[in-house]
């Protein structure tokens, strides 16, 4: 998971909890302009903070490019993308979850190999960042035959 500017510690903690439950290998967050590993994150993660590695990096775009060089497919999240239910996370993959209000930064979005969307039929057309991350983590898990 690559988290682009997540600001709410409850979102980060919840994402960590789901990541641990489904065997995500790690989470990448920026060193600045995002929530860091706080006591609120630890409490919300209900212990997952002890098991999910977190890498704090200076530049998410450069990190994503380096991952691609190593064979990792980068999938972003956007309102205009491939239906996540049709996504097959075979092989090394990383999913980018954007900032709660602004989404994924334009530069990072350009680096993504593909964009995924979560179709919604209700009146509200957005999901909480941790809820969106949970849906995508679960889809990635099940698409691998788990």
Automatic annotation (TrEMBL):
Pfam families referenced in this protein's UniProt entry, alphabetically: SpoU_methylase (PF00588)
GO biological process, any: methylation
Keyword tags: Methyltransferase, Transferase
UniProt KW Transferase keyword: yes
A GO CC term assigned to this protein in UniProt: cytosol
GO-annotated molecular function: RNA binding; RNA methyltransferase activity
Signal peptide as annotated in the record: none
Domain tRNA/rRNA methyltransferase SpoU type per the UniProt entry, residue ranges: 2-137
Top-rank lineage group of the source organism: Bacteria
InterPro entries recorded: Alpha/beta_knot_MTases, rRNA_MeTrfase_TrmH, SpoU_MeTrfase, tRNA_m1G_MTases_N
Family: Belongs to the class IV-like SAM-binding methyltransferase superfamily. RNA methyltransferase TrmH family.
Entries under PANTHER family matching the protein: 23S RRNA (GUANOSINE-2'-O-)-METHYLTRANSFERASE RLMB
Protein name: tRNA/rRNA methyltransferase
Organism: Ligilactobacillus equi DPC 6820
